[in-house]
Here is the input.
Amino acid sequence: MSGEGIAIMAIYAQLFASACNNSYVDLASEALGRIAWEKRISGDGVEQTETRLLLSSANTVLVVDDEIIYALDGAGKSLWSKEKWRNTPVVIRNEAIYHTSPADKTIMEAVDFKNNLQVKDFWIPDTGKYSSLVLFEPSREGLVAQVQYMPTPVEGEKSFIVYSVKQDGLGYEWSRSFDEEVSVAMPVFNPISGLLVTTTQKEVLILDVGSGGAENVSVRNFPLPYSGEKLWLSCDDRNYLYWAGSDKKSTGLTVTDLSGKEIWQFITDLRPADMTMPPIVGSDHVYLLHRKMLTAISNGIRQWTFKAKTEEFRSATALSDGTILVVEGNILYRLESNGEILFQVELPEKLITPPVLDAAGNIYVAGRKTVFSIQ
Here is the structure.
């Protein structure tokens, strides 16, 4: 899998799998950097994986590899494992784990945390050989999704579709197609407000998918804040949109409302191509994570920076207590709201997952071979 594909998988976990659109989790932690336990994950190709992800619920940790989901309890004990289609998303919603069928990537399944089947044989439209699922938002009632079509030997044009299908439906509840278009930023979806934000090469598109009924799904649009090739998007519970990008005029972070009105802007000389993930919207600051620098910003003003020591930053997760967890190589940092190091813990292998928390505030990270619990 390409480096870009690996990055997308990690971002997908952060933004969608744990029901957050901004790498912020509404949880606090009293962890001080002690390794509570470590669990070796075994299986074919495990040590070569680059796409490992972690998801967490109240007392279960899911280790998502290319083709297998492993479930661990809070003490690191193996509970069960199951297969899925290679390199497809896994998300937790409504106390269920949604994933693709190992036999057919066009079929969605769901299990509970004891691996009991909850949903089976749910068709995911338009997910064929030349398409990829870039938004996967399942629920008990159905699925909201965005699918990007890639050029085929017959058709040379790119396009994408956004749609909703219901559990007992015979087709789309509604759909919107965008021909000769590519979504330049990963879409975000707020299930509370029912708003889905996606993009073309020129416009921001806001779909009110919670308005009920195909005829009521309105589309609003405004110009992209940045016109460069690389664009990152996050949102918050106020429905503010956080855009990191560049154009001929500037490079930086622009915050807008849903009409496109600018709330504030931060200008930087660091390139969007050097960012490792979308803006991280914390309780005190908005963070930009570049390969060698973490920048904390409030209302358009830089508050502090934290530089990588030897390797590049890979990922970060902001917590409700104002701290932020940052991964650099085999080191996990926890930084205070003022940028001071609360702890740093060195693990025996390089970390490839964004940090996650359980309800008790325990922190989990993983490398290619091992999952670590930090307290």
Notes: Confidence is low (pLDDT under 50) at residues 1-19. The two ends are 33 Å apart (CA to CA). The first helix runs from residue 3 to 17.
